[in-house]
Amino acid sequence: MQALATVQKPFAAPTAARSTGRRALAVRAAAAPEQLSRRALAGFLAAVPVLLPASRALALIPDDDDEELVEKARANRAKRLAAERETQQAFSRSAKGLDRVLEQELIPVQRAINNLAQSGAQLEAGDVKAAAGTLSGGWVRDFESAANKLSYTDSSKSSAAAVFSSLSSLQAAAASGSAADAKRGFVATVSALKGWASAANVTADLKGL
Questions:
Q1: Quick one: DSSP state of residue 64?
Q2: In CA terms, which of 35, 52, 136, 162 is 20 to 30 Å from 178?
């Protein structure tokens, strides 16, 4: 019996070792999902700082439905464009006098000044009919187009509108044959034209104002 017992002991040890190995494998298998989830969480947390600036950048983009923000953006852009055009205009003067583009834009304005001066002389002479003829014609349309092109700022645009309104009233007064109304309209138109030329920064480029 003792010999049998001693023979059975060597077989007990491998069974215990196998059992212990199975338990170790089971523990590692159970820990694997936990380790995997920790790695996934660590990866997600690492990506969060990258995602946050993008979300902030998106928040800075104005919504097209927000009309107030859109209008402000348009107004700011218009101001920048006006400032750039004024800078270009000033540079063209400082280089070699007026550049060709600005010079061409000023021709209809100078023509308008000349026609106004002629109509003023005709009104002074009492020839309202002749003044009415001088105040009509294609030069009026050309002047309005040129003035609009040269009006970059809100101030110059407003001044240009005042000139157009005064000139229209002057034409109507002269066409009606009223010398008194035509003379008042002439004074108002010249005053408005001077105000626009100053606002558009072209007074020094014109003659007769």
A1: T
A2: 162
